[in-house]
Amino acid sequence: MSSLMRNHFMKVLLSVIAAVVAVIDADAQIVTVSEGKVNSDSIRRAMDNGPYFGLYKDNYFIFGTSVGQRPTKQNTNIKFQVSIAQRLTKSVLPWNSYLFLFYTQKCFWNVLERSMPMTDLNFNPGIGLAKPLFVKNRFIGKLLLLLEHESNGRDGTASRSWNKISFGGSIMIDPNFIVHGKAWIPIVDGVFNQDILDYCGIYQAGISFSSPNKRFGASVILTKRRGWELNYNTVVELNYRIFQRDNQYLFMQFYNGYGEGLLAYKEYHSQLRVGIVIKPTLFSEY
Questions:
Q1: In whole angstroms, what is the distance from residue 206 CA to residue 283 CA?
Q2: Phi, psi dihedral angles at 48 (to 5 degrees)
Q3: How much is the mean pLDDT over the chain?
Q4: How far is it, in rounded angstroms, from Cα 12 to Cα 131?
Q5: Considering the entire predicted model, what is its pTM?
Q6: CA 196, CA 212: separation in Å to the nearest integer?
Q7: Which pLDDT score, from 0 to 100, does residue 20 have?
Q8: What element of type H or E holds 83?
Q9: CA distances from 171 to 124, 132, 215, 223 (A)
Q10: Strand partners, 82
Q11: CB 57 within 8 Å of CB 104
């Protein structure tokens, strides 16, 4: 990567990060918690005062290396993700749902190699319906129906592309414990990744925990690869809020399995990385 290209990329990256950070303060004011329960009125208010721009998945910037192998310039890299969502409807749709447009970009950056190449960029735009769930005037989670596209923007034999009709949901057992799941109907249009379900999976499930004061959090996400074997891609994450009133966390992520990035989706990776994460207010999407 030339110096000019690298400088241009860094300017674009910083602009995107600045835009994400700019919505954090507003995002943090969405809901209130009263007597251990998330206030349903504040959820409805936030959903109705739109269109609302905010965070979708975790936004992070982490650095690390391979586990179980000698660290090298090739297996030590930066991984970062930027993820945002925009509510498109100004009023509630049938079934009390809302229409969202979302976009997630994930990048692997080999900063220790000469010219610091971006080895893999994954683009994940989509559109979908979100339905908040309430029980006895308490917000307990939401259901999602999504149409997603994911590709790496490459051509030729390096091209990777697929689409998903996804059904998901997150349920708050209590304000500190969340279970979530997601399954999809795949539409694999990429010529060179027809076997992607064997590596990137057919459904996922996970749990998230946070301490009562919201300073510490942990999550486990399991993605089931196709087949009858107990073959899962596993992600374990730990986060610690740096300052009580801010939404930035120290972050550790352990990835074990296949499909971490689209270009090398057939390669097994066991990676440990640490850095910073910016998280949505209530819970992250996966």
A1: 12
A2: -85, -25
A3: 86
A4: 33
A5: 0.84
A6: 39
A7: 44
A8: strand 77-87
A9: 24, 10, 21, 18
A10: 105
A11: yes
Q: How far apart are the first and last CA of the chain?
A: 31
Would you call the peptide bond into 51 cis, given omega within 30 degrees of 0 as the criterion? yes
In this structure, what token pair is assigned to residue 127? Answer: 């559109």
- Closest to 59 in 3D by CA, of 284, 280, 277: 277
| CA–CA gap between residue 259 and residue 255 (Å, rounded) | 10
What is the Cα–Cα distance from 207 to 31, expressed in whole angstroms?
21
Show the tokens assigned to 243: 């300052």
| Strands 203-210, 161-174: pairing kind | unpaired
**Whether pLDDT at 13 is above 70:** no
Q: Three-state SS string across 59-72, please?
A: EEEEEEEECCCCCC
Rounded Cα distance between 165 and 84, Å, is 19
Least confident of 107-111, 123-127, 172-176, 205-209: 172-176
